[in-house]
């Protein structure tokens, strides 16, 4: 009994010592840190998978006092950048030392789809980004405009039908689902060259896969964070937790392999990503993409492209319903530009500057990613910092996008929706890093032009034909989910939709 007690107290003493060592990582390096519980650390504060509450708390406590502050997810230290000049240096000037986004491992043998642009590290990322960048120029993206407008036409038809069917429910529609079906059809068409038909058939296979990719996993926030935090360690375990995306590997691989085979055999040409990627395969046999690499890129375009855009459109309509004057002003711009051009063209869309401000202001209030992450590839001395702060190689550095977007120093009354914040004069007065909706620097969002295009076409189509209002029964309460990597509306967005008189 005495022996057991001795062993138990030794283990406990070691555990306390170890935890104290972990939870004072920042203090030991002269970096201010938030207070953590001596035993549980931040366990009870971890309320979201993107841990935005921890980043906000750290940003609020130390902004103006130190360029970097520290916090913890379990025993893993996180650096939070509180100074926009330093954010710019990390994302742009010293990017060469911060190429990687995260430290998580991936196993290409078990999951060939994991070798995509968002995940890749160092030179592998650089080589792939160089290959893919020409695919996303405005010239290439413009070719897809007509595909997007024809899907938008179906969105209009489906919306009209659903409005008619919802008469008994006061014409209240759940728009996040409708717009998710629109973006699945757009991306399915533009990435795979496939008619997904999810607007016409909400149970279409593609829509179901897309839905499952973003729901059903991460039921327990703390367990999901645990798996992500200790992924490297868990990967070595004989029984390791499955990565949720592994369930979709065979679906995507089969789809891409079949599409590639048919296109190469029948010499089919289409203005879509698959075609542009197949071009990369052919023009350069030695350095070109393999079918698995190609499938991984198409997969990430699908994952990164559909939910970000449908959430952005849903939040925009929600804010427009809350702010009817802004909705009227935007509709007036859309109608006058469409009248001038006779129909919706790429040039007409580009002329709608107020629409551009509305999309940006929506992304400010509802950024897709709560923070941008970068990992230094060598020990990095924070420039000009009198405290001599060094960010050690491999530590996770967070630029807290959401906290910055809600900082009243950059956006007075940040909870107000004000598209004029993005007029040229206002932009010139603000720090360039005060808006990070698409990230920044060489590793920013490669699909931003395409994303903006599908968002704008969707909004133009809907706002030209319908008025959006908050339901009188107050059922439109917006809840942002905490179980997803992306900030998406948890229970959808319910609005009253009124067709406009023709
Ligand atoms: C409104 C729509 C979108 C938003 C708000 C958005 C936002 C973002 C953000 C914040 C990042 C991280 C940037 C950084 O770390 O600096 C990112 C990366 C990325 N996005 Fe998007 N995105 C959107 C649409 C798209 C679309 C349509 C595609 C593909 C067709 C796409 C593909 C990617 C890829 C591949 C990356 C990783 C880039 C790299 O690591 O080199 N995104 N996106």
TrEMBL record:
Keywords: Endoplasmic reticulum, Heme, Iron, Membrane, Metal-binding, Microsome, Monooxygenase, Oxidoreductase
Protein family according to the UniProt entry: Belongs to the cytochrome P450 family.
UniProt protein name: Cytochrome P450
Protein's membrane topology: Peripheral membrane protein
PANTHER family per record: CYTOCHROME P450, CYTOCHROME P450 6A16, ISOFORM B-RELATED
One term of GO molecular function: iron ion binding
Subcellular location field: Endoplasmic reticulum membrane; Microsome membrane
Principal cellular location given in the protein's record: endoplasmic reticulum
Taxonomic lineage of the native organism: Eukaryota, Metazoa, Ecdysozoa, Arthropoda, Hexapoda
Positions contributing to heme binding: 445
One CC-aspect GO term: endoplasmic reticulum membrane
InterPro entries: Cyt_P450, Cyt_P450_CS, Cyt_P450_E_grp-I, Cyt_P450_sf, Insect_CytP450_Detox
Cofactor(s) needed for function: heme
């Amino acid at each position: 009994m005495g022996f057991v007690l001795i062993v138990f107290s030794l283990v406990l003493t070691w555990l306390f010592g170890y935890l104290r060592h972990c939870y004072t990582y920042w203090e030991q390096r002269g970096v201010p840190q938030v207070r953590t519980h001596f035993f549980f650390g931040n366990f009870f504060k971890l309320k979201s998978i993107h841990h935005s509450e921890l980043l906000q708390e750290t940003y609020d406590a130390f902004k103006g006092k130190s360029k970097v502050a520290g916090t913890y997810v379990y025993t893993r230290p996180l650096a939070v950048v509180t100074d926009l000049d330093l954010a710019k240096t990390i994302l742009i000037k010293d990017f060469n030392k911060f190429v990687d986004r995260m430290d998580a491992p991936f196993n290409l043998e078990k999951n060939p789809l994991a070798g995509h642009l968002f995940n890749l590290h160092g030179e592998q990322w650089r080589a792939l980004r160089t290959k893919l960048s020409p695919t996303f120029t405005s010239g290439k993206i413009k070719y897809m405009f007509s595909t997007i407008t024809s899907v938008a036409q179906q969105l209009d038809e489906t919306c009209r039908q659903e409005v008619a069917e919802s008469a008994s429910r006061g014409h209240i529609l759940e728009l996040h689902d409708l717009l998710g079906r629109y973006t699945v059809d757009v991306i399915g068409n533009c990435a795979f060259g496939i008619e997904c038909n999810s607007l016409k058939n909400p149970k279409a296979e593609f829509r179901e896969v897309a839905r499952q990719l973003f729901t059903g996993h991460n039921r327990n926030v703390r367990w999901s964070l645990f798996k992500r935090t200790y992924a490297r360690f868990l990967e070595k375990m004989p029984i390791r937790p499955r990565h949720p995306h592994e369930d979709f590997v065979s679906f995507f691989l089969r789809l891409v392999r079949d599409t590639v085979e048919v296109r190469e055999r029948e010499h089919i040409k289409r203005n879509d990503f698959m075609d542009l990627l197949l071009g990369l395969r052919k023009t350069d046999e030695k350095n070109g993409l393999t079918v698995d690499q190609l499938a991984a890129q198409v997969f990430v375009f699908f994952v990164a492209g559909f939910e970000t855009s449908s959430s952005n459109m849903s939040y925009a309509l929600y804010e427009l319903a809350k702010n009817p004057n802004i909705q009227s002003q935007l509709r007036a711009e859309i109608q006058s530009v469409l009248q001038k051009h006779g129909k919706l063209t790429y040039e007409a869309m580009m002329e709608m500057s107020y629409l551009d401000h509305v999309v940006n202001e929506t992304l400010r209030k509802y950024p897709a990613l709560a923070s941008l992450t970068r990992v230094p590839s060598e020990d990095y001395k924070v420039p000009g910092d009198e405290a001599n702060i060094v960010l050690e190689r491999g530590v996770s550095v967070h630029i807290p996008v959401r906290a910055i977007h809600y900082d009243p120093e950059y956006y007075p009354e940040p909870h107000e929706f004000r598209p004029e914040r993005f007029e040229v004069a206002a932009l010139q007065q603000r720090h360039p890093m005060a808006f990070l909706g698409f990230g920044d620097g060489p590793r920013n969002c490669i699909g931003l032009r395409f994303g903006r295009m599908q968002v704008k076409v969707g909004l133009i189509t809907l706002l030209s034909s319908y008025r959006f209002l908050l339901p009188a029964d107050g059922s439109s309460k917006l809840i942002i989910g905490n179980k997803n990597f992306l900030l998406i509306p948890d229970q959808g967005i319910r609005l009253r939709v009124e067709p406009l008189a023709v």
